[in-house]
Amino acid sequence: MHGPARMEGGQDHDGSVRAAGTLPRARHIAHPKTARRLHLWLEMVAIFVLGPLAMTYAIYELRVPLFAALMPVLVGVSTFLLLDRTFELRRELTHPFAAREILSILFIVVLGAAAVGAWVAEHMPREFLSMPRERPHVWRRVLFAYPVLSVLAQEFVYRTFFFHRYGPLFGRRRWLAILVSGLLFGFGHVIFKNWVAVAGTALTGVLFAWRYERTRSFWAVWIEHTLWGWLVFTVGLGSYFYTGVSHGWKLRFWR
């Protein structure tokens, strides 16, 4: 019995975009024709566009907690991947990444921290470092819970599932896959009802998608996503990512 074909840089031997856990697939799946391509595009829109809109309605109109609103998507995606014979979870979670990626991640995050911190200090001085200064207990809880309760799920959906399921739509056009993944990631944050969350996560989403496509490492992206999230909550932008204080697209500080 032969092992899976060797893949490089998020792509299989024929150059098509895939996830790290993707195994060799039948030609009609790896290279879909018009009908299947249309099906996949419509499915993508339903999950990544209509899904966030439905969750926004559930959160603000039906008063459903954010985590409960996310559960159907997480359960559906997880079930699909676990039952998909062309996907191997162990392969996805054990794919290594080079040590130099850590240096790259830290370099970009430090630059981002300097830029974002300077902007918040200049334009939002009252919010700058307010959570660690005024609510350190909440800040510590966020730093602990965010990587486990939020980042794992987001990367599983927007990187692992997206690149595995929809990679065949992009063929060898890796940058198109990266851009679409990043923009959909940003749109997913409409649930917070402010454009800071949407625009900021679209930019970082492109970065995360690029990192994943480049390394095929779930954990490299998880580390990078975690660091950016810690930065957001530390410098004073946490209120833009909190549904309890963002009704009506008003931007308020986390009280």
Please describe what this structure looks like.
The protein has helices spanning 27-30, 34-60, 66-83, 89-94, 99-123, 130-134, 136-170, 174-187, 195-215, 218-235. It has one domain (27-249). α5 runs parallel beside α10. It is an all-alpha fold and 255 residues long. Helix content is 68%, strand content 0%.
Q: Shape from CA axes?
A: globular
Structural class: mainly alpha
Question: In DSSP terms, counting alpha (H) and pi (I) runs of 4 or more, how many helices?
Answer: 10
What's the number of structural domains? 1
- Residues in helix, %: 55-70%
From the alpha carbons, calculate the radius of gyration and give it in angstroms. Answer: 19 Å
- Residue share in β-strands: under 5%
Q: What is the overall pLDDT average?
A: 89
What is the element string, with H for helices and E for strands?
HHHHHHHHHH
Q: What's the story with the biggest beta sheet?
A: none
Q: Give a count of the beta strands, DSSP E runs of length 2 or more.
A: 0
Distance linking N and C termini: 59 Å
Stretches with pLDDT under 50, minimum 5 residues: 1-13, 245-255
Compile the SSE list and pairings.
Blueprint: H1 27-30, H2 34-60, H3 66-83, H4 89-94, H5 99-123, H6 130-134, H7 136-170, H8 174-187, H9 195-215, H10 218-235
Summarize the structure.
This protein is an all-alpha fold and 255 residues long. It has helices at residues 27-30, 34-60, 66-83, 89-94, 99-123, 130-134, 136-170, 174-187, 195-215, 218-235.
Index terms:
globular
